Structure to design on (635 residues):
């Protein structure tokens, strides 16, 4: 049976210097640069007041008690190194499970070395170098998603790092609340002081103000925070001062606020709702169709909420779901925002956040779908292309450098389209910052307004260094992500072959067509009609691909995958039927639990290289492995 044609593979050598490699191929390079920079750090210490007497004397180091302590410390470090051998080998092309892979060398070395200097990105005094690097990285991410970053214009975007996507999502909700509720507080402050900034304010009721577009609210707030006669009253009337309960006493409609997100949204949204005191019950989930938010259902939801007079604080769209990397139709969500009643539009691109680099020319312009299609077999769909263009219309965006940015953990990012929103999160009021230069400095000091306090400057250095070595356009950073998407296309294109080979034995389905580089697979033994039996079978397949934490040997499985269960109740009405058809199942009730499936994240840059010098790729080898696994489990 003929193999489907493969995507053209980009030149392997272009990316080869940037990774330590599955076999540590770049060990010499890694070691040499690392040792050089570690020594460089020690020189720095020695040259700081070199005339001082060192507090640790050279003689003390020969003392037996000193030696015993050194031995004790070494023993523990060696023990740690031994324990770490039980880690998951995420650097290897045999690992296609969760959202992790080998790390980009510039960022990895930057992080290790910067840690020696231990800068704290809370204020410039504690991190003169890395705070500037954070600002640089944040602005690069803003431009990649299509935000304007010219400080002399409005809006001007600003981005900063967080510990991860969860914190960035928290920050989005925190700012959405601040901006949405601020006009109510401004009107209250006007009333108290009898200084009416805007004549229309006096007649506007809460419902109207809660529907104001973001730009209008921000313009008002920006002026109010600079009106000395108003500031004290405004501070007193804000939700951040009063708390949700007392604010809702003054403005009863705000006890009915909701946030709308697709059912495919990450669970951090539930956490954010709890954290901010809205409660998870106020998170309205829109059903999904083929892995994406059903925008028709979103429209119905918004209409229903309007009829019930429930104000919508924010609508969340997902650019790359955690489960399958699916892209919501952000252009259609943005279109809804432009209509009469507006909402804060946040895009959770924790997973997909770096993919826009594939769509960018070096000058920042958007590449046409046709220009991109020459590199891929399926990517990008019209929908994905339009969603990417619509990112620029989102009020805020979450991106996770520690996912598709290939940097070590501890690096998420929050991007805001109009940086004036951050004024509501700053502890100091705006009118003390007199000049434009003051203003610029204020936005650079992200520690002053981000939710977190002390933050690692080493993470900022890592992200910035990766961006410097591989700028965020298709010819540089995009090369890396091209590999990832092509690997996924290769796996996807082999599913029909797998299906053919397993004909008569098991049904094979891709429940949700991949949008980028994540692919789900479900199985059902032929003849079976019960969901629970199919799920149990796919789980057995997964068990053979799973990391078993208790297993001391570790790292011995041929390949590592991950899994997920999609609750059927989260799906649009026609979906369970579609899935049942694909797997020849009978789904009795609409709430018949969930569909269990394998989930593959194809991040490793060498998946289209060969494990054995044959034309066979790692992806081919995986498909062969999967086939024999299914066969042996059916025996
Ligand atoms: C991973 C992820 C998150 C959470 O990010 P963390 O960095 O794990 O905190 C949020 N949303 C989406 C879509 C994600 O994929």
């Amino acid at each position: 049976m003929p193999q489907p044609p493969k995507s053209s593979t980009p030149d392997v050598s272009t990316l080869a210097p940037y990774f330590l490699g599955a076999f540590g191929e770049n060990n010499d390079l890694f070691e040499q640069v690392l040792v050089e920079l570690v020594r460089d750090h020690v020189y720095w210490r020695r040259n700081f007041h070199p005339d001082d007497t060192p507090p640790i004397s050279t003689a003390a180091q020969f003392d037996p008690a000193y030696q015993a302590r050194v031995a004790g410390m070494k023993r523990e470090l060696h023990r740690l190194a031994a324990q770490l051998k039980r880690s998951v080998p995420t650097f290897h092309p045999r690992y296609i499970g969760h959202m992790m892979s080998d790390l980009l060398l510039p960022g990895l070395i930057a992080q290790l070395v910067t840690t020696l200097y231990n800068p704290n990105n809370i204020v410039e005094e504690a991190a003169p170098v890395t705070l500037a690097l954070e600002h640089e990285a944040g602005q690069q991410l803003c431009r990649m998603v299509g935000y304007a970053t010219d400080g002399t214009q409005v809006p001007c975007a600003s981005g900063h790092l967080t510990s991860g996507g969860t914190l960035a999502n928290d920050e989005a909700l925190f700012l959405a609340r601040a901006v949405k509720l601020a006009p109510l507080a401004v009107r209250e402050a006007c009333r108290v002081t009898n200084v009416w900034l805007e004549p229309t304010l006096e007649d506007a009721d809460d419902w109207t103000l809660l529907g104001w577009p973001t730009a209008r609210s921000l313009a008002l707030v920006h002026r109010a925070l600079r009106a000395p006669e108003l500031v004290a009253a405004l501070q007193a009337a804000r939700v951040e001062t009063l708390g949700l309960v007392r604010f809702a006493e003054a403005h009863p409609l705000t006890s009915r606020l909701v946030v709308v997100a697709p059912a495919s949204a990450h669970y951090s949204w539930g956490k954010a709702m709890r954290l901010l005191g809205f409660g998870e019950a106020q998170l309205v989930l829109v059903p999904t169709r083929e892995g994406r938010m059903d925008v028709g259902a979103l429209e119905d939801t918004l209409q229903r909420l309007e009829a019930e007079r429930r104000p919508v604080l924010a609508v969340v769209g997902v650019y790359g779901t955690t489960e399958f990397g699916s892209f919501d139709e952000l252009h259609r969500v943005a279109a809804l925002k432009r209509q009469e009643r507006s909402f804060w539009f946040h895009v959770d691109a924790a997973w997909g956040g770096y993919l826009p680099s594939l769509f960018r020319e070096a000058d920042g312009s958007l590449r046409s779908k046709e220009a991109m299609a020459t590199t891929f077999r399926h990517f990008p769909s019209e929908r994905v292309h339009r969603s990417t263009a619509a990112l620029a219309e989102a009020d805020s965006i979450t991106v996770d450098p520690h996912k598709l940015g290939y940097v070590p953990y501890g690096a998420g990012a929050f991007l805001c389209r109009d940086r004036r929103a951050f004024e509501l999160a700053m502890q100091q009021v705006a009118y003390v910052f007199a000049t434009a230069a003051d203003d610029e400095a204020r936005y650079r000091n992200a520690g002053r307004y981000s939710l977190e306090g002390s933050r690692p400057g080493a993470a900022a250095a890592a992200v910035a260094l990766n961006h410097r070595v591989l700028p965020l356009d298709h010819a540089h950073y995009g090369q890396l992500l091209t590999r990832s998407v092509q690997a996924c296309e290769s796996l996807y294109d082999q599913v029909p072959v797998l299906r053919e080979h397993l004909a008569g034995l098991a049904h094979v389905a891709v429940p949700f067509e991949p949008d980028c580089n994540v692919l789900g697979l479900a199985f059902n033994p032929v003849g079976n009609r019960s969901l629970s039996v199919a799920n149990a079978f796919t789980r057995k397949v997964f068990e053979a691909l799973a990391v078993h934490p208790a297993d001391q040997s570790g790292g011995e499985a041929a390949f590592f995958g991950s899994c997920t269960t999609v609750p059927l109740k989260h799906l649009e009405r026609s979906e369970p039927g579609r899935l049942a058809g694909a797997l020849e199942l009978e789904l009795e009730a609409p709430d018949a639990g969930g569909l269990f499936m394998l989930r593959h994240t194809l991040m490793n840059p060498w998946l289209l290289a060969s494990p054995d010098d044959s034309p066979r790729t790692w992806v081919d080898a995986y498909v062969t492995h999967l086939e024999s696994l299914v066969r042996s489990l059916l025996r």
